[in-house]
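Is it possible to get an amino acid sequence alongside its tokenized fold?
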Amino acid sequence: MNEYEEKRTSQTAYSQNRTFQSRDLSHQPQGTYRAEYIPQNRTAINRENRTVSGPRSRAAAEGRRRPDGTGAGNRPRRRVQTGTAAAQGSRRLTETGTRSASRRPPGTGNASGIQERRRRSQSSYRRDDRSPSSKTGARSGWRLEEWEILEQENEREYQEYLERKRRRQERQRREEEQRRRRRMLAIRGGGAALIAVVLIFIVYRIFFSNPVLGTVTVEAGTQEFQTESFLRKDADAEFVTDMSQIDTSHVGEQEIVLNANGNERTSTLVVQDTAAPTAEAQSSMIDIDGELSPDELVTNIEDATDVTCSFKEEPDLSSEGTVPVTVVLTDEGGNTTEIDSEVEVIEDTEAPVIDGVAPLEGFIGDAVSYKSEITVTDNCDKEVELEVDNSDVDTETAGTYDVRYTATDRAGNTAEAETTITMKEKPEDYVEPEEVYAEADEVLAEITTDDMTLKEKARAIYDWCRSNIGYISTSEKDSWTNGAHQGFTQHQGDCFVFFATAKALLTQAEIPNIDVEKSDTSHSRHYWSLIDCGDGWYHFDTTPRTGGGEFFMLTDEELLDYSASHDNSHIFDQSLYPATPTEDSTIE
């Protein structure tokens, strides 16, 4: 074979071998490997390449060289790659360098690795070039050394990858173990915290929670309170606030203090009114264009709180006649009740009537009550103003003085009455009214009850005086309080003692009474009372009479008939006292 054919055969074998290598490396991925990419074990490829047969490899194996040490096997040749094989080879070398650089420790890079390989290749090339072997053998030795280097680097990278993978798995295992431990600690800590919270709550509820309700609501008018009403659970409790001073007659809130389990607690007592008021209608009379108040058309108003009265519609009082009127009752709780009534509109020309005008007595230096026994009534007005003219009275000088009364209704009708007051020195042994009233209260507590009517109470007083006071002909008449005190303490006296004792009892029983004195004192003096139990004034005399006689609630006619037949025993000036009804009392 001539030199030309040998050269062509060598180039053909080299080209076929490079084409095989390009074809063998075409399956590798393009671009730089990532950390997770598993490098391919190219050992088999390298081994296969080393065993690939061809003109060039065989020539190298046979060691064909020129006798002078020159030839194709020893000729240094620059490896020029073109086409697809060159591109793939370049990419393979680039990727290999990149992967090696990404997996090597700091301080080593891809460029230095490539330079090292080039240095080794050039050194081997120079060594082969200096040898007397053929050119083909030199090239084969150079290729084997290059593939061994690549195989070693690949194996090293693969082992590094496996080590990184093992470390990553170990790190992941440790992290997972740490997460598992943290979860267990969190679960255990959460459970312990929950148990602690439950225990704290139980201890708080048992030993420290407030057993007293924050708010307690009661109905207006409630009088009795129990500690149980203020507790949300069983506890040893008592009121600190004086509950007897709690007023439930008005809607509102009040603070109540209790001692519960040794601690003072506060509760708010809310008073509410949910019951509507009740009342009865009553008719009324009024002058034309007079001023009418709605409360004049209702009576017996009952409610636990204060009640206000108003007209549902303002009545027309401009002309005479009967006018229907609706009165609206409203309590503090906002509850309302409507009462239908009527008013009689008239031309009022009738003057008021002044009752209870009688001679008065007073002590020098003491205040005088001029109106305590006086009552004024009118056909139209419920309340009529009473004026007292005491300008002639000298309360510092003993003597008898005139007193004048004047009453005027809304229509302008006026009534007048006169009496006298006798001022005298106070006795040294004078008994104050408060002392006498206290003695009267003790007697009333024994002989009366709250459910008794005024007439029943008056009868009980009458019977007690008749049964517990003995009659004697003399007594001290300077003061009615002294006479009453004598009756309560000594249980004896004349008519003045009977009268004074009954007066104290009637006053404390809230029975209206008027003092009556006999007008003809030439033969004897006598004292008794007029009382009003709700159906008019009647005579009331507790003094026993010789030969007997009943003087409980008599009319003027009945008393005067008895007086005429018993030496004017009860003669009196009828102009000074209100007239009694002509018939006996029918009230219960």
